[in-house]
Design goal:
single chain; Glutaredoxin; 7 helices; 12% strand; elongated
Length: 163
Amino acid sequence: MDTRDNSRPDRAAWDQDEARRIITRCAALKGGLMEALHGIQGAFGYIPAESYDMLADAFNLSGAEVYGVKSFYHDFRDTPAGHHVIKICQAESCQARGSRLLTAHVEKLLGIRLGETTANERITLEPVYCLGNCAVSPNITINDKLYGRMDEDRLEGLLGKLG
């Protein structure tokens, strides 16, 4: 059961009743906590702290255990992401082929660092630690679309195309 709604460009404001519906659909599933976390993030764009107790109750866990699972996975967010999410690979192959310089360049262009979102909430910049495309590194994703052999000029061109 996939509880994510990736088709919604604008995420809903926190709604406890909607979160409860998502959690209820997942409570009986094997691995349901992960599905519930994905579902909540899909609905709201992040996993609000207000959901931890609801998740803990539904899955017979402590709030700390829920937070531990959520924080272990890098794709789960504590705050909403920007309209566009750019991930830059920081794994060894990409580093050897220039991802650190690429990261520094885009941080300077956007005025943010990895893990941050621009003030206008347009772009979130995140690290990723392998995209499995090492043969054509350095790699990035923009809104989950993979781009290999990335350089500063090409990245600037892609940034210019973002709406």
